[in-house]
Specification:
alpha+beta, two-stranded antiparallel sheet, Jelly Rolls, 4 strands, 3 helices
Length: 143
C-alpha cells in the first residue's frame, strides 16, 4: 500500500542542499519517522486494536515520507496575506513545526479556528489515509 508521512522524506539525495543540511535532514527524518510510528501505535491501541495494527495494515515501515518546507516571511500588511487555500493533507499524519508567526487554521464546527503555535512543539494532524484506515477498522468492529 502507498503511504505518506507528510514532513520528511529520508531517502532523497537533496543534491541542491549542502552536506551539513543533508545530514541534519536525514537524522531529523529518522527521528520524525520514529515519532510517527509511536503515534500510530497509540492510535491503534486507542481504537481497541493491536498496537501494530495501523503500522502493519498501511505497510508503514516500507512506505514513503515527504519533507515539505514552507516559509512565509512576515507580511507588512497581514490582512492582505492569502496563505494556502482550504485543503486536507494526504497520508497518515502531518507533523508540523511552526515558527512564532503561525498561520495554521483548522475547521471546527464549520468555522475556521486559528491554531496558535506552542514553542518547541510539534502539531500532529490526522490526514486523509489515516481517516480512511480508521473508518475501515470501525466498520469491521461495528458492522
Amino acid at each position: 500500500m502507498w503511504n505518506f508521512l507528510t514532513l520528511c522524506y529520508a531517502l532523497c539525495s537533496w543534491a541542491f542542499c549542502c552536506c551539513y543540511c543533508r545530514e541534519v535532514a536525514y537524522e531529523y527524518s529518522q527521528k520524525i519517522r520514529g515519532l510517527a510510528r509511536k503515534l500510530l501505535e497509540g492510535i491503534s491501541e486507542s481504537l481497541g486494536l493491536g498496537s501494530n495494527s495501523i503500522v502493519e495494515s498501511t505497510e508503514f515501515d516500507s512506505g514513503h515520507q515527504l519533507f515539505v518546507v514552507n516559509l512565509y516571511p512576515p507580511c507588512p500588511q497581514p490582512h492582505l496575506a492569502l496563505g494556502l487555500p482550504p485543503h486536507s493533507d494526504i497520508g497518515l499524519l502531518t507533523l508540523l513545526t511552526q515558527n512564532g508567526i503561525g498561520g495554521l487554521q483548522v475547521k471546527h464546527h464549520g468555522k475556521w479556528v486559528k491554531v496558535n503555535p506552542l514553542p518547541n512543539s510539534i502539531t500532529v494532524l490526522l490526514s486523509d489515509q489515516l481517516e480512511v484506515c480508521h473508518v475501515k477498522h470501525l466498520q469491521k468492529a461495528y458492522f
